[in-house]
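Dock heme C; give full complex structure.
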Amino acid sequence: PAAGLAETGDQALLKQARQLFKPLPDNMATQENPISPARVELGRKLFFDPRISVDGTVSCARCHLPQLYGTDGLRKAIGNHGKANPRNSPTVLNAALQGAIAAHWRGDRKSVEDQAVQALVGPPSFGLAKYEDAIAKLKAIPGYLPLFKAAFPRDPSPFTQDNWGTAIGAYERTLVTPAPFDAYLKGNTRALSPTAQAGLREFISVGCASCHNGTGVGGTMYQKFGRFEDYWKLTGSKEPDKGRFDVTKNAADLYVFKVPILRNVVMTPPYFHDGSVTELPDAIRIMARAQLGKTLSDTQVKQIVAFLESLTGKLPENFQTVPVLPTSAFQAP
Amino acid sequence: PAAGLAETGDQALLKQARQLFKPLPDNMATQENPISPARVELGRKLFFDPRISVDGTVSCARCHLPQLYGTDGLRKAIGNHGKANPRNSPTVLNAALQGAIAAHWRGDRKSVEDQAVQALVGPPSFGLAKYEDAIAKLKAIPGYLPLFKAAFPRDPSPFTQDNWGTAIGAYERTLVTPAPFDAYLKGNTRALSPTAQAGLREFISVGCASCHNGTGVGGTMYQKFGRFEDYWKLTGSKEPDKGRFDVTKNAADLYVFKVPILRNVVMTPPYFHDGSVTELPDAIRIMARAQLGKTLSDTQVKQIVAFLESLTGKLPENFQTVPVLPTSAFQAP
Ligand code: HEC
Ligand code: HEC
Ligand code: HEC
Ligand code: HEC
Ligand SMILES: [Ca+2]
Ligand SMILES: [Ca+2]
């Protein structure tokens, strides 16, 4: 009977979880942003190619490294000529899930495609003065012409910044990392350890899931960071970032950030928009205090960590294995 | 009979080639530098980990990218804080073959192990002030302790710069890229196209193979760059590098460089110690003039390119697929 009870409890938890979360799709293509194998393959090469940047050292993979689960391990990213970025690099894995709300910590990008286009002229990112510079650099690598033609067959001159964005976006829309939690949501309750299930229960009952929900376990809304206490008092952040306020100039957006997706969060320290917190248990405690006015017990933290671990999936093969880039000089006849 | 003659010619060429070159071994371990799976796996993680460098952006893979065949596509490498390196990044693929002579363009490293140790404190490379800084950074990543212990089981405190070098060296000693030319040397004459075989013939008869020989098709000796003409007049190099002279202060070493290995050379532009030449056919023409006092015909150049293409192997799987690094914060319990 004890086992029977536990099973009933397990089923109730699964039912509750299914109302809040969804398993990952096979890819993140949408009607508006469909993908094709040729675009994905081109986008994958572009993602890993540093030669398009102003100093030849910056590719998307410079800040979104596969070996660090699509992040760079830094508090704040560093781009061309060693330039400091204002915020922490989020992972590109599953990032395209956040279609409903804009990308970046402050929601100042429309889509992964828009993000990729703007990165070209981002001063601390690729650092190019204008899009034409990117096009010229792409054209100087003969191997890209057939790839752009195959990806955009109806386009008479396919070297454009929009096609750059479309191709990289198509690639990013394949970067899903199905995890034990997805198997659980699909009905295999044993995919989560008892501790992870206890953590899931806490994650819901404490209130985390009121913000971190949906397929990404986050990425569905904006929220003020520090609803109960100024966040910088808990994180030790030196110069508080005003968040979405700087984008919208709307007083209600002061200290508002996107609720980040928590998939693979165990693998992507340091935490928060400024990378101010190194250890995940600390980040969880800060969340409870800042966002919910609660103090968690050690057991609760341990259980929530176990749940968050169940969000770690295997790296996509087309991300962990890097593509061979077309050489910029002589092409094999 | 014509076919018979051709075959005889083919066999004579193969015989000649076997006197000058050798197929790649399975790995490049030596008695002095043996390898073990635990060391290779640790070395592979260290090779791809940027968190040990002074600004957290520089790993070996920063300048030796798998997507660019172990090079960076730059004329001269760029390290921490955007600092310029004085020379072009050679590929790490098959680099450990050059045991007999020291590594680097000017021969100022004893082995791949020594190279990896010194990179830690190289000002434009990892940029650390002292080895202790590297050790401290390694210790701060809990996941490395079990890996160092497994790799150096008899070492009570395995975090040392020598073990760093030994592990990375062990990994590098696995990075071989068997190519069509190896199949040819093993007796499969059809592994090389007729044009490539003609190129091999030219490569030998013109005199290239007098310097570029052995398993690496290079990497066996030092030679003056510019025996018949000042090299900078042909390459357009701005400030001529004095080469090995700056290392030995011996007048005979003025403008002397290591004869580089030519394996995968088609994939590793730009060329020469300063990356001054972009196109391989130009590099070949310059070599003939500067080193042999000869002017090659277009056909000769085309054939030699075809031969050099037969030196391109598949990327090693443990290089093209990057390792997942231990996270620096909380470790899964
Ligand atoms: C110099 C470092 C750097 C480079 C280069 C870089 N990124 Fe980023 N990326 C970041 C940082 C930092 C952010 C967060 C920016 C912010 O919120 O202000 C980010 C955000 C993103 C996001 C949004 C993620 C989310 O969950 O909101 C995506 C997607 C992304 N980058 C993909 C790319 C692609 C594709 C490229 C190449 C075209 C690229 N990045 C180049 C550092 C970089
Ligand atoms: C009211 C909304 C809200 C609630 C409730 C909430 N969060 Fe958050 N969470 C956020 C926002 C917004 C951020 C981004 C903060 C920043 O970095 O600016 C965030 C960030 C995080 C991060 C860091 C992610 C990263 O990659 O840097 C973790 C981990 C996290 N939350 C876990 C939790 C947990 C666990 C709970 C419950 C104890 C919780 N959150 C409750 C809104 C919320
Ligand atoms: C900042 C760029 C940069 C970094 C970081 C870097 N290298 Fe290099 N590497 C170079 C350059 C440039 C050379 C040639 C130096 C010279 O000859 O003066 C080189 C030479 C080498 C060589 C000799 C190759 C040959 O054929 O002579 C090996 C092996 C090597 N590097 C491996 C590594 C390893 C292992 C690491 C990490 C521990 C590393 N490199 C870090 C740029 C870099
Ligand atoms: C007398 C010795 C010698 C001869 C003969 C010689 N080379 Fe070289 N080769 C060198 C040296 C030394 C370098 C390195 C020059 C530098 O960059 O400082 C080199 C560099 C090269 C490079 C550039 C490799 C790279 O990765 O940057 C190529 C390609 C090359 N040689 C091909 C040839 C060909 C083809 C021939 C015959 C036509 C030839 N060499 C004849 C000594 C020689
Ligand atoms: Ca992070
Ligand atoms: Ca080169």
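Observed: The two ends of chain B are 74 Å apart (CA to CA).
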